[in-house]
Amino acid sequence: xxxxxxxxxxxxxxxxxxxxxxxxxxxxxxxxxxxxxxxxxxxxxxxxxxxxxxxxxxxxxxxxxxxxxxxxxxxxxxxxxxxxxxxxxxxxxxxxxxxxxxxxxxxxxxxxxxxxxxxxxxxxxxxxxxxxxxxxxxxxxxxxxxxxxxxxxxxxxxxxxxxxxxxxxxxxxxxxxxxxxxxxxxxxxxxxxxxxxxxxxxxxxxxxxxxxxxxxxxxxxxxxxxxxxxxxxxxxxxxxxxxxxxxxxxxxxxxxxxxxxxxxxxxxxxxxxxxxxxxxxxxxxxxxxxxxxxxxxxxxxxxxxxxxxxxxxxxxxxxxxxxxxxxxxxxxxxxxxxxxxxxxxxxxxxxxxxxxxxxxxxxxxxxxxxxxxxxxxxxxxxxxxxxxxxxxxxxxxxxxxxxxxxxxxxxxxxxxxxxxxxxxxxxxxxxxxxxxxxxxxxxxxxxxxxxxxxxxxxxxxx
Amino acid sequence: xxxxxxxxxxxxxxxxxxxxxxxxxxxxxxxxxxxxxxxxxxxxxxxxxxxxxxxxxxxxxxxxxxxxxxxxxxxxxxxxxxxxxxxxxxxxxxxxxxxxxxxxxxxxxxxxxxxxxxxxxxxxxxxxxxxxxxxxxxxxxxxxxxxxxxxxxxxxxxxxxxxxxxxxxxxxxxxxxxxxxxxxxxxxxxxxxxxxxxxxxxxxxxxxxxxxxxxxxxxxxxxxxxxxxxxxxxxxxxxxxxxxxxxxxxxxxxxxxxxxxxxxxxxxxxxxxxxxxxxxxxxxxxxxxxxxxxxxxxxxxxxxxxxxxxxxxxxxxxxxxxxxxxxxxxxxxxxxxxxxxxxxxxxxxxxxxxxxxxxxxxxxxxxxxxxxxxxxxxxxxxxxxxxxxxxxxxxxxxxxxxxxxxxxxxxxxxxxxxxxxxxxxxxxxxxxxxxxxxxxxxxxxxx
Lengths: 462, 447
Fold this sequence. Notes:
heterodimer; A: alpha+beta; Cytochrome Bc1 Complex, Chain A, domain 1; 2 domains; 7-stranded mixed beta sheet; 16 helices; globular; B: alpha+beta; 6-stranded mixed beta sheet; about 40% helix
């Protein structure tokens, strides 16, 4: 099908349903852009399916978004969601360990997975030919509900995860800063724990608790399958319904949701590390991605850190020459997260002064942005928005992320219009609330010889 | 189903090469302005000259000061970066299609009429010097620094394209004008675009740039011979408080354009280019020793490029992991691959090919590099036929021809007192040298 209006999707669902004997409901539809569209279908067991046909190239992306992330873990047993993701590439009831990787690679598949705070997703991209789709479905159905965990595989993969932690956190100053920043900024919300898990918790991880975690969260009614690219809608729906339709839903038991209390006092921590110059991570509590103010923070961020004339770059790197690098971003979390600012200072630079300069620039945002900055931010974000839709994998990621986080895949296509809807008054209001001093957390990695003896709020290293 | 196969259009205009990969899917234009000479031609004692020159292009022109020029470009939303690699300079980015023409006008202004202000040069050199030092805080970057030094003794390629601290401090205003003259000329220019454009439009948009450049080309510099290790040479880059080692094992192999590139690429993919390959399986799957384990070979370089086995084992496993990798490497160098590995790798690369060419914009840089190697415009699309034609004998011969089982380098970023004794005990034949991670003067001593 090359034209994808709502009626054609409804007809496709009806036909596929009649052919496979399972009710398939069209549950949502959205036009994307450039005559592309996406539709959501739901199976009786609660599995959601998003299809975004696109015939530009003979390839497709297949992604499974499971609504479980590190935020769903017991805070005394961090790292299980990510460890589970690793073990999902091992043996299942139908396919022994190693068969998934061999079969996918034989077909030239780009495959991997990622775990984050709100979701875990598994992705494949491959040529749209032969029985590639059927093969992917076969493996994905099996590992959704029939993972087999043996002690030897568990032990080996646990070592891999520990090495990943060493690479990403223990031997990485940036990774360490990030982990410490979230532990400092959040008192009660599960975002305070790193997705990779603490080394102490990893050392204690056991196969039985991982099995319990898997059985709790991996179920069709807790997942979204997204397929974008070269696909025929009717045969695809029929195949998915026949294979996934046999899986039973289960009761998903989640931890009680907690809200982080408003932060009213600045927090800071100081670490002594093997670095040549101080590095700083700052965090300000910010809006969740579906909040209208998220777009306002995106625009403010562009003005702060993107480009040669960005306020923080110009002040700290060009004018004061106290830093060599400045980065910033608001994390796209399902619940309120942090706007992060990362600084690499010059050797010997005064970290406290750098933080003070940052705060001065943030305070100045209370008067808003000039027209030039707003144009720049909107146009730059427009480029990024379109770039994210370039490949079938990018399309699937956009749709899957918003569906998994908010149950609203159509929101993915509204990114640009949300930016346009932000007013100058919104920018001033949001800047004043988000970038107030009391909302700030700060972690500084000092060269070991220069580290201060005490700090106002010290985060304990494990 | 409609399938749109990518196409590459090519023309030369006044000696410059123009490439177009048409793409109507998005209202964007991706572009790359390639300079055929890279950091390799930085004179001795002047490493970083080309990189600094490229960076200064965006710090003011004869028409607009730095702030105004950047404000004009940024307001269009255009994202631009400048990269000086050893073999190639690149000014590259992406623009909204409706702003591509004014963005090209601004880029042309910067490329033809840079201000090269004294104060900006001094400030930039200060920033870059700090960044070079800060690389010591990134273990993967640190590995690359010392890997270069080990691979290329006595050859300009040992130097970082972004410069070396002492050399940066020597750069003068004359260096900037010299670099500008030698890097920017029509014969050395490759302009590549991907978007809803015609080749005639690309030619029209870049005509002022071409008109303002000298004809060129630059005479290629004479370079010293490459020197391979004569035995097992192990560098331990000593950095305190590591929990993990960053490890690279290998040696110089061959240059792009060599007749053996395809069989060598297929053989090294079979060995370490997939999750199920022998290297990854033995290091990661069987033993859990490293999160990443792969064999890397850049097949489009115009100079001798290395085969590198890259892993990151915990410090306690580092020496055992190195010993294992050396054993695996030796078998590879003798052409001993696992049964079926070549066919499996061929299947992987052939079946992956549709993904490689699905997005025309992603073909920009490979197209520029193929142009640099003097390969035809259609080389991008001949990958499947070249792979399909290879025999296993050609693959094993290529491996034996370009690798040597007992002459190999290893560079390890680690905390030396945790590994050196074990290293010397387990690998008695190795020449082991310990270098301080902060020492910018340590070079290989192979003659």
